[in-house]
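Following up on my earlier thread - several people asked me to post the actual chain instead of describing it. Fair enough. Here it is, all 310 residues.
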Amino acid sequence: MTEARLRTFVALADTGSVRAAALRLYVTESAVSAAVSALTRDLGVPLVRRVGRGVRLTPAGTVYAGYARQVLGLLEEGRAAARGAADPGRGPLRLAAVTTAADQILPELLASFRTRWPDVELTLEVGHRRQVWSSLAAHEADLVLAGRPPADAAATVLATRPNELVVVGSPDVADGFSAARTPWVMREPGSGTRASADAYLAEREVAPPRLVLGSNGAVIAGAAAGLGVALVSRDAVGAELAAGRLVVIEMPGMPLDRPWHAVGGAAPTPTTLLFVRHLLDAPGWTAPKQTASEAPARAGSTGAPTGGRG
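Reply from S.P.:
Thanks for posting it. Predicted structure:
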């Protein structure tokens, strides 16, 4: 039950076809089939079944794929921890962020971090809320930047930053705004901001028309074009508010307080803690109260230097 076989099986589970898995892994289709057959023999239960030209996981395969992802993630995490322990400034760092954080919070942070630590091997995954928390749970990400972590997440909050959600619209839409009749421009299901908007409207027992757009940028552009109002992070619409293309619409219970959280696993790698220290040097980011006394000590315990690589 080798790492290569596990990676092959996860690729097959993700893509749903032997051909697509082979293309992803740069191997032959026969190599994919052989790896999955070997896993099936080892486990003694069927993992996939044919469906047309593709394959579908059996119930056993679905369960096993979840464990396989965690095993592979732990292996990557272990490699990152070992390399980071030897030299945090040259270790790998796997970030995952929700779309708004990736668009509005991370660019300047990443640019300044790369200037300070150019030898860190940095990767970034951008997705909706469920996706990034699943990546952390599967050990596929070292640090997540998103809203509050799920209650059942095995996670450590390492830093927080204020974040306000406000209702915005074009000046014309704001003039004729009606909570029950004005359309709301929303993100797709799975977005944390979408969940906050749905909960807010349900709490006030109003059901306005909804227009679903596929990205945070599209929602903001749609609101500015007069398609309706939108619940967005104030961080995301600073330029539009300053230019007058959008205005904040005052509503009961607004703004919503939804702080950003930088969250790692139970044992953050030394390179992860290096990035957290960089976060805490940036405006607005603070260590959470429950770990304020221990976070600097944990970061310091890695032996990471405090300055950049001249």
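The mean pLDDT is 86. That should answer part of your original question.
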